[in-house]
Amino acid sequence: MYQDSKAGINVALLAIPQGMAYALIAGLPLHFGLLASGVSALVGGIFGGGKFITLGPTNATAVLLLGVFLQLKMVSTNGEVTHSALLVLPSILVCTGIWLILASFFRISFLIKFISRTVITGYITAASFLIIINQMDNVFGLQDPLPLGTNFFESIFFIIKAFHSFSISSLLLSIITLFFFLILKKQFNNLPNIAISLILGSFIGQFLIFQDYKVLCLKPFSVNIFPLSGPDFSMFVIHWQVILQSSFAIALLCLIEGLSIGKSLASRNGKRIQSDRESFSFGIANLSCGFFSGMPASGSLTRSSLNVNSGAKSGFSNIFTGFLVLLGYFFLGEAVQWIPVSVLSTLVVIIGFSLIKKNQLVTAIKSSRSDALTFVVTFTLGLVFSLQIAIFVGVVTSLFLFLKKVAEPEMTEHGYNADGELTYIVSKTKSSQPEVSIVHVEGELFFAAADLFYEQIRRVGENRNIKVLVLKLLNAHHLDATSVLALEELLDYYKEKKCHVLLCEVRKDAIKILKNSGVLSRINRKNIFPHIRSNPTLSTAKAIKRAKYLLSHHEAKVTIYSNEKRGK
Hints:
The protein is of the alpha/beta class. The chain is 60% helix and 8% strand. A seven-stranded mixed beta sheet has the order 4-3-11-5-7-9-10, with helices on both faces. The protein has a two-stranded antiparallel ribbon with strand order 1-2. The longest helix has 36 residues, at 233-268. The two termini are 47 Å apart.
Protein backbone atom coordinates (compact mmCIF):
# COMPACT_ATOMS: atom_id res chain seq x y z
CA MET A 1 0.00 0.00 0.00
CA TYR A 2 2.84 2.42 0.85
CA GLN A 3 4.61 1.84 -2.48
CA ASP A 4 1.35 2.26 -4.40
CA SER A 5 0.56 5.49 -2.54
CA LYS A 6 4.04 6.84 -3.19
CA ALA A 7 3.79 5.99 -6.89
CA GLY A 8 0.31 7.53 -7.04
CA ILE A 9 1.57 10.85 -5.63
CA ASN A 10 4.49 10.97 -8.07
CA VAL A 11 2.28 10.24 -11.07
CA ALA A 12 -0.39 12.74 -9.96
CA LEU A 13 2.20 15.53 -9.75
CA LEU A 14 3.05 14.76 -13.37
CA ALA A 15 -0.52 14.10 -14.54
CA ILE A 16 -1.96 17.45 -13.34
CA PRO A 17 0.28 19.74 -15.45
CA GLN A 18 0.27 17.25 -18.32
CA GLY A 19 -3.53 17.10 -18.28
CA MET A 20 -3.75 20.88 -18.56
CA ALA A 21 -1.09 20.85 -21.30
CA TYR A 22 -2.94 18.26 -23.36
CA ALA A 23 -6.19 20.19 -23.02
CA LEU A 24 -4.32 23.25 -24.30
CA ILE A 25 -3.04 21.21 -27.28
CA ALA A 26 -6.58 20.12 -28.18
CA GLY A 27 -7.93 23.66 -27.74
CA LEU A 28 -10.16 22.55 -24.85
CA PRO A 29 -10.74 24.27 -21.48
CA LEU A 30 -8.12 23.13 -18.97
CA HIS A 31 -10.51 21.22 -16.75
CA PHE A 32 -11.23 18.74 -19.57
CA GLY A 33 -7.63 17.56 -19.33
CA LEU A 34 -7.72 17.35 -15.54
CA LEU A 35 -11.00 15.41 -15.47
CA ALA A 36 -9.82 13.05 -18.21
CA SER A 37 -6.56 12.41 -16.31
CA GLY A 38 -8.38 11.70 -13.07
CA VAL A 39 -11.34 9.72 -14.36
CA SER A 40 -9.36 7.53 -16.78
CA ALA A 41 -6.62 6.74 -14.24
CA LEU A 42 -9.29 5.83 -11.66
CA VAL A 43 -11.28 3.66 -14.08
CA GLY A 44 -8.11 2.10 -15.50
CA GLY A 45 -7.00 1.14 -12.01
CA ILE A 46 -10.32 -0.57 -11.34
CA PHE A 47 -10.84 -2.39 -14.65
CA GLY A 48 -7.26 -2.72 -15.89
CA GLY A 49 -4.91 -5.59 -15.30
CA GLY A 50 -2.39 -3.94 -12.97
CA LYS A 51 0.30 -1.31 -12.66
CA PHE A 52 1.81 -1.30 -16.14
CA ILE A 53 -0.64 1.02 -17.94
CA THR A 54 -1.66 4.39 -16.52
CA LEU A 55 -4.46 5.92 -18.56
CA GLY A 56 -4.91 9.57 -19.39
CA PRO A 57 -4.76 12.10 -22.23
CA THR A 58 -1.69 11.83 -24.43
CA ASN A 59 0.01 14.02 -27.01
CA ALA A 60 -1.09 11.74 -29.82
CA THR A 61 -4.79 11.68 -28.87
CA ALA A 62 -4.84 15.41 -28.12
CA VAL A 63 -3.41 16.36 -31.51
CA LEU A 64 -5.73 13.93 -33.26
CA LEU A 65 -8.70 15.51 -31.47
CA LEU A 66 -7.58 19.00 -32.48
CA GLY A 67 -7.41 17.77 -36.08
CA VAL A 68 -11.02 16.60 -35.82
CA PHE A 69 -12.15 20.02 -34.56
CA LEU A 70 -10.20 21.73 -37.36
CA GLN A 71 -11.85 19.43 -39.89
CA LEU A 72 -15.26 20.42 -38.50
CA LYS A 73 -14.21 24.11 -38.49
CA MET A 74 -14.90 24.35 -34.76
CA VAL A 75 -11.69 26.13 -33.71
CA SER A 76 -11.65 29.91 -33.24
CA THR A 77 -8.74 32.14 -34.27
CA ASN A 78 -7.34 32.17 -30.70
CA GLY A 79 -6.87 28.38 -30.85
CA GLU A 80 -9.78 27.54 -28.54
CA VAL A 81 -12.62 25.30 -29.67
CA THR A 82 -16.14 26.57 -30.08
CA HIS A 83 -19.17 25.52 -28.03
CA SER A 84 -20.21 23.19 -30.88
CA ALA A 85 -16.97 21.26 -30.42
CA LEU A 86 -17.82 20.68 -26.76
CA LEU A 87 -21.16 19.23 -27.86
CA VAL A 88 -19.53 16.88 -30.39
CA LEU A 89 -16.78 15.68 -28.02
CA PRO A 90 -18.93 13.38 -25.82
CA SER A 91 -20.19 11.55 -28.93
CA ILE A 92 -16.62 10.98 -30.09
CA LEU A 93 -15.63 9.64 -26.67
CA VAL A 94 -18.65 7.35 -26.33
CA CYS A 95 -18.11 5.91 -29.82
CA THR A 96 -14.40 5.45 -29.04
CA GLY A 97 -15.34 3.55 -25.89
CA ILE A 98 -17.76 1.35 -27.81
CA TRP A 99 -15.14 0.49 -30.46
CA LEU A 100 -12.66 -0.48 -27.75
CA ILE A 101 -15.18 -2.57 -25.78
CA LEU A 102 -16.16 -4.41 -28.99
CA ALA A 103 -12.48 -5.08 -29.67
CA SER A 104 -12.23 -6.58 -26.19
CA PHE A 105 -15.38 -8.73 -26.40
CA PHE A 106 -14.53 -10.11 -29.83
CA ARG A 107 -10.89 -10.60 -28.80
CA ILE A 108 -9.50 -8.82 -31.86
CA SER A 109 -6.94 -6.69 -30.06
CA PHE A 110 -4.32 -9.27 -31.08
CA LEU A 111 -4.63 -7.96 -34.65
CA ILE A 112 -2.65 -4.91 -33.56
CA LYS A 113 0.53 -6.99 -33.69
CA PHE A 114 0.21 -7.08 -37.48
CA ILE A 115 0.52 -3.28 -37.64
CA SER A 116 4.11 -2.12 -37.84
CA ARG A 117 5.44 -0.12 -34.93
CA THR A 118 6.80 2.20 -37.62
CA VAL A 119 3.25 3.52 -38.12
CA ILE A 120 3.20 4.81 -34.55
CA THR A 121 6.73 6.19 -34.88
CA GLY A 122 5.71 8.15 -37.97
CA TYR A 123 2.43 9.27 -36.41
CA ILE A 124 3.95 10.41 -33.10
CA THR A 125 6.83 12.20 -34.87
CA ALA A 126 4.33 14.09 -37.06
CA ALA A 127 2.21 14.81 -33.97
CA SER A 128 5.24 16.19 -32.11
CA PHE A 129 5.98 18.57 -35.00
CA LEU A 130 2.37 19.77 -34.97
CA ILE A 131 2.38 20.16 -31.18
CA ILE A 132 5.52 22.30 -31.30
CA ILE A 133 4.39 24.54 -34.16
CA ASN A 134 0.88 25.02 -32.72
CA GLN A 135 2.34 26.39 -29.46
CA MET A 136 4.80 28.82 -31.03
CA ASP A 137 2.36 31.74 -31.01
CA ASN A 138 1.94 31.38 -27.23
CA VAL A 139 5.65 30.78 -26.63
CA PHE A 140 6.54 34.02 -28.45
CA GLY A 141 3.38 35.84 -27.36
CA LEU A 142 2.49 36.93 -30.91
CA GLN A 143 0.16 39.91 -30.80
CA ASP A 144 -1.13 39.84 -34.39
CA PRO A 145 -4.14 37.61 -35.04
CA LEU A 146 -2.85 34.28 -36.30
CA PRO A 147 -4.96 32.39 -38.89
CA LEU A 148 -5.36 28.68 -38.32
CA GLY A 149 -3.06 26.72 -40.62
CA THR A 150 -4.57 23.72 -42.39
CA ASN A 151 -1.23 21.90 -42.21
CA PHE A 152 2.23 22.09 -40.67
CA PHE A 153 3.82 24.15 -43.44
CA GLU A 154 1.00 26.67 -43.60
CA SER A 155 1.26 27.15 -39.82
CA ILE A 156 5.00 27.88 -40.15
CA PHE A 157 4.23 30.49 -42.81
CA PHE A 158 1.67 32.27 -40.61
CA ILE A 159 4.03 32.28 -37.59
CA ILE A 160 6.91 33.73 -39.59
CA LYS A 161 4.58 36.36 -41.02
CA ALA A 162 3.41 37.45 -37.53
CA PHE A 163 6.76 37.03 -35.76
CA HIS A 164 7.42 40.80 -35.69
CA SER A 165 4.63 41.16 -33.11
CA PHE A 166 6.25 38.92 -30.48
CA SER A 167 6.06 39.85 -26.77
CA ILE A 168 9.31 40.33 -24.86
CA SER A 169 7.73 39.26 -21.57
CA SER A 170 6.30 36.03 -23.09
CA LEU A 171 9.60 35.18 -24.76
CA LEU A 172 11.49 35.89 -21.54
CA LEU A 173 9.15 33.65 -19.53
CA SER A 174 9.52 30.87 -22.10
CA ILE A 175 13.32 31.05 -21.91
CA ILE A 176 13.30 31.10 -18.08
CA THR A 177 10.89 28.13 -17.93
CA LEU A 178 13.07 26.18 -20.35
CA PHE A 179 16.14 27.03 -18.26
CA PHE A 180 14.43 25.82 -15.06
CA PHE A 181 13.38 22.57 -16.70
CA LEU A 182 16.83 21.79 -18.15
CA ILE A 183 18.56 22.47 -14.81
CA LEU A 184 16.06 20.33 -12.90
CA LYS A 185 16.27 17.52 -15.44
CA LYS A 186 20.06 17.49 -15.24
CA GLN A 187 20.43 17.82 -11.47
CA PHE A 188 17.19 16.33 -10.08
CA ASN A 189 15.88 13.96 -12.74
CA ASN A 190 13.77 11.96 -10.26
CA LEU A 191 11.66 14.97 -9.26
CA PRO A 192 8.39 15.97 -11.01
CA ASN A 193 10.21 18.53 -13.13
CA ILE A 194 7.21 19.52 -15.25
CA ALA A 195 5.21 20.51 -12.15
CA ILE A 196 8.15 22.29 -10.48
CA SER A 197 8.98 24.19 -13.68
CA LEU A 198 5.34 25.23 -13.98
CA ILE A 199 5.31 26.59 -10.42
CA LEU A 200 8.64 28.42 -10.75
CA GLY A 201 7.67 29.90 -14.11
CA SER A 202 4.37 31.08 -12.66
CA PHE A 203 6.20 32.86 -9.80
CA ILE A 204 8.42 34.64 -12.30
CA GLY A 205 5.35 35.54 -14.34
CA GLN A 206 3.63 37.10 -11.35
CA PHE A 207 6.82 39.01 -10.57
CA LEU A 208 6.82 40.45 -14.12
CA ILE A 209 3.14 41.41 -13.74
CA PHE A 210 4.06 43.18 -10.49
CA GLN A 211 6.71 45.09 -12.50
CA ASP A 212 3.97 46.21 -14.92
CA TYR A 213 4.89 43.83 -17.74
CA LYS A 214 2.02 42.53 -19.82
CA VAL A 215 1.71 38.79 -19.23
CA LEU A 216 -1.19 36.72 -20.55
CA CYS A 217 -2.39 34.13 -18.00
CA LEU A 218 -4.74 31.18 -18.19
CA LYS A 219 -8.44 31.65 -17.65
CA PRO A 220 -9.86 30.24 -14.40
CA PHE A 221 -12.54 27.59 -14.71
CA SER A 222 -15.61 27.03 -12.59
CA VAL A 223 -15.58 23.84 -10.58
CA ASN A 224 -18.66 21.66 -10.85
CA ILE A 225 -19.16 19.02 -8.17
CA PHE A 226 -20.85 16.80 -10.78
CA PRO A 227 -19.25 17.72 -14.12
CA LEU A 228 -21.65 15.61 -16.16
CA SER A 229 -21.86 15.62 -19.95
CA GLY A 230 -23.29 13.39 -22.62
CA PRO A 231 -23.69 12.88 -26.38
CA ASP A 232 -25.77 15.48 -28.19
CA PHE A 233 -28.03 13.53 -30.56
CA SER A 234 -28.60 16.42 -32.97
CA MET A 235 -24.83 17.01 -33.35
CA PHE A 236 -24.28 13.29 -33.90
CA VAL A 237 -26.85 13.25 -36.71
CA ILE A 238 -25.16 16.21 -38.41
CA HIS A 239 -21.57 15.00 -38.04
CA TRP A 240 -21.97 11.23 -37.69
CA GLN A 241 -19.47 10.38 -40.44
CA VAL A 242 -16.67 12.43 -38.91
CA ILE A 243 -17.55 11.21 -35.41
CA LEU A 244 -17.42 7.53 -36.38
CA GLN A 245 -14.26 7.97 -38.44
CA SER A 246 -12.41 9.96 -35.77
CA SER A 247 -13.56 7.72 -32.91
CA PHE A 248 -12.33 4.65 -34.80
CA ALA A 249 -8.97 6.37 -35.39
CA ILE A 250 -8.69 7.25 -31.69
CA ALA A 251 -9.65 3.70 -30.67
CA LEU A 252 -7.05 2.26 -33.04
CA LEU A 253 -4.44 4.66 -31.68
CA CYS A 254 -5.36 3.72 -28.09
CA LEU A 255 -4.88 0.03 -28.84
CA ILE A 256 -1.57 0.46 -30.66
CA GLU A 257 -0.14 3.03 -28.27
CA GLY A 258 -1.53 1.73 -24.98
CA LEU A 259 -0.94 -1.99 -25.51
CA SER A 260 2.59 -1.50 -26.83
CA ILE A 261 3.46 0.59 -23.75
CA GLY A 262 1.97 -2.00 -21.41
CA LYS A 263 3.70 -4.94 -23.14
CA SER A 264 7.05 -3.15 -23.08
CA LEU A 265 6.90 -2.28 -19.38
CA ALA A 266 5.52 -5.70 -18.42
CA SER A 267 8.24 -7.57 -20.33
CA ARG A 268 10.94 -5.58 -18.56
CA ASN A 269 9.54 -6.90 -15.29
CA GLY A 270 9.11 -10.46 -16.53
CA LYS A 271 5.31 -10.15 -16.70
CA ARG A 272 2.60 -10.18 -19.33
CA ILE A 273 -0.54 -8.09 -19.78
CA GLN A 274 -4.00 -9.31 -20.76
CA SER A 275 -4.62 -7.39 -23.97
CA ASP A 276 -8.37 -7.94 -24.07
CA ARG A 277 -8.82 -6.86 -20.45
CA GLU A 278 -6.73 -3.74 -21.03
CA SER A 279 -8.74 -2.97 -24.17
CA PHE A 280 -11.90 -3.21 -22.08
CA SER A 281 -10.46 -0.80 -19.50
CA PHE A 282 -9.55 1.62 -22.33
CA GLY A 283 -13.14 1.47 -23.53
CA ILE A 284 -14.71 2.02 -20.10
CA ALA A 285 -12.28 4.90 -19.44
CA ASN A 286 -13.25 6.70 -22.66
CA LEU A 287 -16.95 6.07 -22.00
CA SER A 288 -16.52 7.57 -18.55
CA CYS A 289 -14.70 10.58 -19.97
CA GLY A 290 -17.62 11.06 -22.36
CA PHE A 291 -20.03 11.39 -19.45
CA PHE A 292 -17.72 13.37 -17.12
CA SER A 293 -16.45 16.21 -19.35
CA GLY A 294 -13.17 14.57 -20.29
CA MET A 295 -11.12 14.06 -23.44
CA PRO A 296 -9.73 10.91 -25.13
CA ALA A 297 -7.60 8.72 -22.88
CA SER A 298 -4.94 6.18 -23.77
CA GLY A 299 -1.91 4.58 -22.17
CA SER A 300 0.60 7.31 -21.30
CA LEU A 301 4.26 6.35 -21.69
CA THR A 302 5.58 8.98 -19.25
CA ARG A 303 3.01 8.32 -16.54
CA SER A 304 3.11 4.53 -16.96
CA SER A 305 6.92 4.50 -16.79
CA LEU A 306 6.93 6.78 -13.75
CA ASN A 307 4.34 4.59 -12.04
CA VAL A 308 6.44 1.43 -12.50
CA ASN A 309 9.73 3.15 -11.66
CA SER A 310 8.21 4.62 -8.49
CA GLY A 311 7.75 1.11 -7.14
CA ALA A 312 4.02 0.56 -7.75
CA LYS A 313 2.90 -2.93 -6.75
CA SER A 314 -0.64 -3.08 -8.09
CA GLY A 315 -3.38 -1.20 -9.91
CA PHE A 316 -4.21 0.65 -6.70
CA SER A 317 -1.48 3.16 -7.58
CA ASN A 318 -3.56 4.23 -10.61
CA ILE A 319 -6.68 4.49 -8.46
CA PHE A 320 -4.79 6.72 -6.02
CA THR A 321 -3.44 8.83 -8.90
CA GLY A 322 -6.96 9.34 -10.25
CA PHE A 323 -8.23 10.35 -6.82
CA LEU A 324 -5.45 12.93 -6.35
CA VAL A 325 -5.93 14.43 -9.82
CA LEU A 326 -9.67 14.77 -9.26
CA LEU A 327 -8.89 16.40 -5.93
CA GLY A 328 -6.62 18.80 -7.82
CA TYR A 329 -9.50 19.63 -10.17
CA PHE A 330 -11.64 20.80 -7.24
CA PHE A 331 -8.87 23.05 -5.86
CA LEU A 332 -7.25 24.45 -9.01
CA GLY A 333 -10.23 26.21 -10.59
CA GLU A 334 -9.15 29.70 -9.48
CA ALA A 335 -5.44 28.93 -9.05
CA VAL A 336 -4.80 28.42 -12.79
CA GLN A 337 -5.24 32.15 -13.40
CA TRP A 338 -1.76 32.59 -11.91
CA ILE A 339 -0.17 30.45 -14.63
CA PRO A 340 1.16 32.39 -17.66
CA VAL A 341 0.12 30.92 -21.00
CA SER A 342 3.70 31.09 -22.31
CA VAL A 343 4.95 29.00 -19.37
CA LEU A 344 2.47 26.18 -19.97
CA SER A 345 3.02 26.36 -23.75
CA THR A 346 6.79 26.07 -23.25
CA LEU A 347 6.26 22.91 -21.22
CA VAL A 348 4.00 21.58 -23.98
CA VAL A 349 6.80 22.23 -26.50
CA ILE A 350 9.25 20.41 -24.21
CA ILE A 351 6.87 17.45 -24.10
CA GLY A 352 6.59 17.61 -27.89
CA PHE A 353 10.38 17.50 -28.33
CA SER A 354 10.59 14.57 -25.92
CA LEU A 355 8.47 12.53 -28.33
CA ILE A 356 11.07 12.76 -31.09
CA LYS A 357 13.28 9.74 -30.47
CA LYS A 358 16.45 9.70 -32.56
CA ASN A 359 17.02 5.96 -32.11
CA GLN A 360 13.47 5.13 -33.19
CA LEU A 361 13.76 7.37 -36.25
CA VAL A 362 17.02 5.73 -37.32
CA THR A 363 15.54 2.27 -36.78
CA ALA A 364 12.37 3.10 -38.72
CA ILE A 365 14.24 4.59 -41.67
CA LYS A 366 17.20 2.23 -41.97
CA SER A 367 15.86 -1.17 -40.89
CA SER A 368 14.21 -2.07 -44.19
CA ARG A 369 12.65 -0.46 -47.24
CA SER A 370 9.13 -1.42 -46.13
CA ASP A 371 9.64 0.20 -42.71
CA ALA A 372 11.10 3.33 -44.30
CA LEU A 373 8.19 3.60 -46.74
CA THR A 374 5.62 3.13 -43.97
CA PHE A 375 7.30 5.80 -41.84
CA VAL A 376 7.59 8.33 -44.69
CA VAL A 377 3.97 7.83 -45.78
CA THR A 378 2.58 8.20 -42.23
CA PHE A 379 4.84 11.12 -41.29
CA THR A 380 4.28 13.07 -44.53
CA LEU A 381 0.50 12.65 -44.54
CA GLY A 382 0.40 13.75 -40.89
CA LEU A 383 2.16 17.01 -41.72
CA VAL A 384 0.49 17.74 -45.06
CA PHE A 385 -3.08 16.54 -44.49
CA SER A 386 -4.29 15.29 -41.10
CA LEU A 387 -3.35 12.77 -38.45
CA GLN A 388 -6.58 10.83 -39.00
CA ILE A 389 -5.67 10.24 -42.64
CA ALA A 390 -2.05 9.54 -41.65
CA ILE A 391 -2.89 6.74 -39.22
CA PHE A 392 -5.41 5.06 -41.54
CA VAL A 393 -3.15 5.18 -44.60
CA GLY A 394 -0.15 4.20 -42.45
CA VAL A 395 -1.98 1.12 -41.15
CA VAL A 396 -3.13 0.13 -44.65
CA THR A 397 0.41 0.61 -46.01
CA SER A 398 1.84 -1.48 -43.16
CA LEU A 399 -0.65 -4.31 -43.72
CA PHE A 400 -0.15 -4.22 -47.51
CA LEU A 401 3.62 -4.48 -47.18
CA PHE A 402 3.24 -7.24 -44.59
CA LEU A 403 0.99 -9.30 -46.88
CA LYS A 404 3.31 -8.63 -49.83
CA LYS A 405 6.28 -9.82 -47.80
CA VAL A 406 4.71 -13.05 -46.55
CA ALA A 407 3.18 -13.80 -49.95
CA GLU A 408 6.43 -13.54 -51.90
CA PRO A 409 8.91 -16.16 -50.72
CA GLU A 410 12.25 -16.28 -52.51
CA MET A 411 13.97 -19.54 -53.38
CA THR A 412 17.50 -20.25 -54.54
CA GLU A 413 18.86 -23.49 -55.92
CA HIS A 414 21.81 -25.35 -54.49
CA GLY A 415 23.60 -28.42 -55.77
CA TYR A 416 26.89 -30.29 -55.66
CA ASN A 417 29.69 -29.19 -58.00
CA ALA A 418 32.45 -31.35 -59.51
CA ASP A 419 34.43 -31.08 -56.27
CA GLY A 420 31.53 -32.38 -54.20
CA GLU A 421 30.86 -28.97 -52.61
CA LEU A 422 27.37 -27.60 -52.02
CA THR A 423 27.06 -24.34 -53.99
CA TYR A 424 24.67 -22.11 -55.96
CA ILE A 425 23.42 -23.43 -59.29
CA VAL A 426 23.33 -20.78 -62.01
CA SER A 427 22.59 -22.90 -65.08
CA LYS A 428 19.19 -24.60 -65.17
CA THR A 429 19.58 -26.48 -68.42
CA LYS A 430 18.16 -29.93 -68.76
CA SER A 431 20.53 -32.69 -67.73
CA SER A 432 20.62 -36.19 -69.18
CA GLN A 433 21.16 -37.45 -65.64
CA PRO A 434 17.99 -38.00 -63.53
CA GLU A 435 17.65 -35.40 -60.79
CA VAL A 436 16.34 -35.34 -57.24
CA SER A 437 15.24 -31.87 -56.06
CA ILE A 438 14.73 -31.05 -52.40
CA VAL A 439 12.67 -27.90 -51.83
CA HIS A 440 12.44 -26.20 -48.44
CA VAL A 441 8.93 -24.69 -48.40
CA GLU A 442 9.10 -21.92 -45.80
CA GLY A 443 6.69 -19.20 -44.78
CA GLU A 444 2.96 -18.59 -44.92
CA LEU A 445 0.98 -20.77 -47.34
CA PHE A 446 -2.37 -19.03 -46.94
CA PHE A 447 -4.46 -18.02 -49.95
CA ALA A 448 -2.42 -14.89 -50.82
CA ALA A 449 0.73 -16.97 -51.29
CA ALA A 450 -0.87 -19.98 -53.01
CA ASP A 451 -0.40 -18.81 -56.61
CA LEU A 452 3.22 -17.87 -56.05
CA PHE A 453 3.83 -21.20 -54.29
CA TYR A 454 2.39 -23.04 -57.29
CA GLU A 455 4.43 -21.06 -59.83
CA GLN A 456 7.73 -21.41 -57.97
CA ILE A 457 7.39 -25.14 -57.38
CA ARG A 458 6.24 -25.66 -60.98
CA ARG A 459 9.28 -23.77 -62.30
CA VAL A 460 11.54 -26.17 -60.42
CA GLY A 461 10.59 -28.83 -62.96
CA GLU A 462 10.84 -26.69 -66.10
CA ASN A 463 13.54 -27.80 -68.57
CA ARG A 464 14.81 -30.28 -66.01
CA ASN A 465 15.08 -34.06 -65.84
CA ILE A 466 13.64 -34.23 -62.32
CA LYS A 467 12.40 -37.67 -61.37
CA VAL A 468 11.84 -37.12 -57.64
CA LEU A 469 10.72 -33.86 -55.97
CA VAL A 470 10.95 -33.73 -52.17
CA LEU A 471 8.93 -30.96 -50.47
CA LYS A 472 10.00 -30.20 -46.89
CA LEU A 473 6.95 -28.68 -45.19
CA LEU A 474 8.12 -28.24 -41.59
CA ASN A 475 8.26 -24.43 -41.86
CA ALA A 476 5.22 -24.05 -44.12
CA HIS A 477 2.44 -22.55 -42.02
CA HIS A 478 -1.29 -21.87 -42.27
CA LEU A 479 -2.28 -24.10 -45.16
CA ASP A 480 -5.82 -23.39 -46.35
CA ALA A 481 -8.15 -24.55 -49.11
CA THR A 482 -6.44 -22.41 -51.75
CA SER A 483 -2.94 -23.65 -50.96
CA VAL A 484 -4.13 -27.28 -50.76
CA LEU A 485 -5.73 -26.95 -54.20
CA ALA A 486 -2.45 -25.49 -55.50
CA LEU A 487 -0.60 -28.48 -54.05
CA GLU A 488 -3.03 -30.88 -55.72
CA GLU A 489 -2.48 -29.16 -59.10
CA LEU A 490 1.27 -29.51 -58.60
CA LEU A 491 0.87 -33.23 -57.95
CA ASP A 492 -1.04 -33.58 -61.21
CA TYR A 493 1.55 -31.50 -63.08
CA TYR A 494 4.49 -33.59 -61.90
CA LYS A 495 2.57 -36.82 -62.45
CA GLU A 496 2.31 -35.92 -66.13
CA LYS A 497 6.09 -35.35 -66.15
CA LYS A 498 6.55 -38.83 -64.64
CA CYS A 499 8.05 -37.28 -61.51
CA HIS A 500 7.42 -38.60 -58.00
CA VAL A 501 6.50 -36.00 -55.34
CA LEU A 502 7.44 -36.78 -51.74
CA LEU A 503 6.22 -34.77 -48.74
CA CYS A 504 8.49 -34.86 -45.70
CA GLU A 505 8.64 -33.13 -42.30
CA VAL A 506 4.86 -32.75 -42.49
CA ARG A 507 3.45 -31.49 -39.18
CA LYS A 508 0.31 -32.98 -37.63
CA ASP A 509 -1.79 -29.90 -38.33
CA ALA A 510 -0.82 -30.00 -42.03
CA ILE A 511 -1.62 -33.73 -42.24
CA LYS A 512 -5.02 -33.03 -40.69
CA ILE A 513 -5.76 -30.36 -43.31
CA LEU A 514 -4.66 -32.67 -46.14
CA LYS A 515 -6.80 -35.46 -44.73
CA ASN A 516 -9.90 -33.27 -44.26
CA SER A 517 -9.57 -31.88 -47.79
CA GLY A 518 -9.35 -35.37 -49.30
CA VAL A 519 -5.94 -34.75 -50.87
CA LEU A 520 -4.25 -37.25 -48.55
CA SER A 521 -6.31 -40.11 -49.94
CA ARG A 522 -5.10 -39.31 -53.47
CA ILE A 523 -1.41 -39.45 -52.51
CA ASN A 524 0.60 -42.63 -52.15
CA ARG A 525 1.00 -42.94 -48.37
CA LYS A 526 4.53 -44.27 -48.94
CA ASN A 527 5.42 -40.80 -50.25
CA ILE A 528 4.41 -38.92 -47.07
CA PHE A 529 6.78 -38.70 -44.10
CA PRO A 530 5.41 -36.99 -40.95
CA HIS A 531 7.64 -34.81 -38.80
CA ILE A 532 9.00 -36.59 -35.72
CA ARG A 533 9.85 -34.20 -32.89
CA SER A 534 12.07 -36.63 -31.05
CA ASN A 535 14.18 -37.14 -34.19
CA PRO A 536 13.76 -34.10 -36.51
CA THR A 537 16.06 -35.40 -39.27
CA LEU A 538 14.50 -38.86 -39.51
CA SER A 539 11.64 -37.72 -41.76
CA THR A 540 14.01 -36.27 -44.37
CA ALA A 541 16.28 -39.30 -44.14
CA LYS A 542 13.33 -41.58 -44.88
CA ALA A 543 12.31 -39.37 -47.83
CA ILE A 544 15.80 -39.55 -49.32
CA LYS A 545 15.83 -43.30 -48.81
CA ARG A 546 12.49 -43.48 -50.63
CA ALA A 547 13.92 -41.33 -53.46
CA LYS A 548 16.87 -43.71 -53.81
CA TYR A 549 14.46 -46.63 -54.02
CA LEU A 550 12.42 -44.91 -56.74
CA LEU A 551 15.64 -44.30 -58.68
CA SER A 552 17.24 -47.60 -57.76
CA HIS A 553 18.36 -48.20 -61.35
CA HIS A 554 19.78 -44.72 -61.90
CA GLU A 555 22.47 -42.48 -60.45
CA ALA A 556 20.75 -39.20 -59.59
CA LYS A 557 21.89 -35.58 -59.30
CA VAL A 558 20.66 -33.84 -56.11
CA THR A 559 19.64 -30.16 -55.95
CA ILE A 560 18.33 -28.28 -52.92
CA TYR A 561 16.06 -25.23 -52.89
CA SER A 562 15.81 -22.90 -49.91
CA ASN A 563 14.53 -19.45 -48.99
CA GLU A 564 17.50 -17.14 -49.49
CA LYS A 565 15.84 -14.18 -47.75
CA ARG A 566 14.78 -16.01 -44.63
CA GLY A 567 15.44 -13.97 -41.52
CA LYS A 568 15.84 -10.67 -43.36
